[in-house]
Write a structure and sequence with these properties.
This protein has about 375 residues and is of the alpha+beta class. Helices cover about 40% and strands about 25% of the residues. About 50% of the residues are buried. Bound molecules: alpha-D-galactopyranose.
Length: about 375
């Protein structure tokens, strides 16, 4: 895909010369279900992006078309829906609605979206569309914003318009990704630290090809359980505003008193935060044995304490563990399907992929997809 190709197709559909914006999907190395607890995450942007071609119109219409999904969508900027319409265009429309609500004077526009991030795989295809759309719409009205601000607006669009209570991780890394680096993000201060990934490592992303129905419901339940944990512990220490503030000591003191499920959830979050900070340090020092251990603990904790893994993810993780060139792996993203992420030596990556495919297929009868990725740059203007 090149910007020129997309511009050409845009011209055929709408006429006129578009500007082109691109924003990537992501993989999370460690720090899962911590972002909405004000904690730490360590994602990297990957080489699959959403592309948005845009040109202003002289009327007040927002016209949207996708290269992957059928249907043309047309909305009047002054009569936009307040909630999702239940189609792919929600990720563009939601950003427009939130921008309008925040006082940005949007202009009419033609929009063509091309998405190459695998959909439903937990690689943040929707965040990529949101970020590319926000960049595009803000540039069209000559009101550029900082990348962290754009990430926040896109998260709000997903929370308020689409109705998914996601954290800030996906949108942030899509905006701020840096080639060759993961981002250790403090989701409270939004302060990023760029952590170099050793150049000889690849991020091998293995797609289980399943997405279990309970994903969205369970995500919201987990969030509610975390909030319940905060409520409980805040009674013992009023300084606790999010699970980020809960110390391992206080957690342990109350192990018998807190309802078992809530305790397990809190336990995962508190320890996952520590693992994430530790993994950033270990990765920066090229201590891959430690990274491997931490990723392994993260997966077990997501499986046993947070309970968001599934059979297919566990099989995919196990399929990787003794292969040559493997330096750590776990499920990545929200869970209940989607992908695992594996750190693999560059020279072993193809063989690794072939072996994992074989093993997974044998165990599940499902043919997985495997993407050999590296950390890439975040969102950008292409033309
Ligand atoms: C989804 C959400 C993120 C984050 C992860 C779990 O990807 O979009 O905000 O909560 O799940 O770590």
């Amino acid at each position: 895909m090149t910007a020129a190709d997309l511009a050409q197709r845009f011209k055929q559909i709408f006429g006129g010369e578009p500007r082109i914006y691109r924003a990537p999907g992501r993989v999370n190395l460690i720090g899962e279900h911590t972002d909405y607890n004000d904690g730490f995450v360590m994602p990297a942007a990957i080489g699959f992006s959403a592309w948005v071609a845009i040109a202003p119109r002289s009327d007040r219409k927002l016209m949207m078309r996708s290269e992957e999904f059928p249907g043309d969508f047309e909305f009047d900027l002054d009569r936009m829906p307040a909630k999702r319409v239940g189609a792919w265009c929600d990720y563009v429309l939601g950003v427009a609605v939130v921008l309008r609500e925040r006082g940005y004077e949007l202009a009419g526009a033609n929009v063509l979206v091309h998405g190459e991030v695998p959909i439903g795989a937990g690689l943040s295809s929707s965040a990529a569309v949101e970020v590319a759309s926000a960049l595009a719409m803000l540039a069209t009205i000559s009101q550029p914003e900082s990348m962290p601000k754009i990430a926040r607006l896109c998260q709000q669009s997903e929370n308020e318009f689409v109705g998914a209570r996601v954290g800030i991780m996906d949108q942030f890394v899509s905006c701020m990704g840096k080639a060759g680096h993961a981002i250790l993000l403090d989701c409270r201060s939004l302060e990023p630290k760029f952590v170099p990934i050793p150049a000889n490592l690849r991020l091998v992303v293995c797609n289980t090809m399943v997405k279990h129905d309970l994903a969205t419901g369970a995500y919201n339940t987990r969030r509610a359980e975390c909030e319940e944990g905060v409520k409980y512990f805040a009674k013992h220490n009023p300084e606790i505003h999010a699970l980020r503030d809960l110390s391992p000591e206080l957690l342990d003191q109350h192990a018998q008193a807190v309802p078992a499920t809530i305790w397990k959830r809190c336990c995962h979050v508190v320890r996952e935060n520590q693992r994430t900070v530790d993994a950033a340090r270990a990765l920066a020092h090229n201590d891959l044995a430690r990274v491997r251990e931490l990723m392994r603990e993260s997966h077990r904790s997501l499986r046993d304490l947070y309970e968001v893994s599934c059979r297919e993810l566990d099989i995919m993780v196990e399929a990787a563990e003794d292969l040559p060139g493997f330096f750590g792996g776990r499920m990545t993203g929200g869970g209940f399907g989607g992908c695992t992420v594996n750190l693999v030596g560059q020279e072993s990556a193809s063989e690794f992929a072939a072996r994992v495919i074989e093993r997974y297929q044998e165990a599940t009868r499902i043919t997985p997809q495997v993407y050999i990725c590296a950390a890439e740059n975040g969102a950008e203007v292409l033309s």
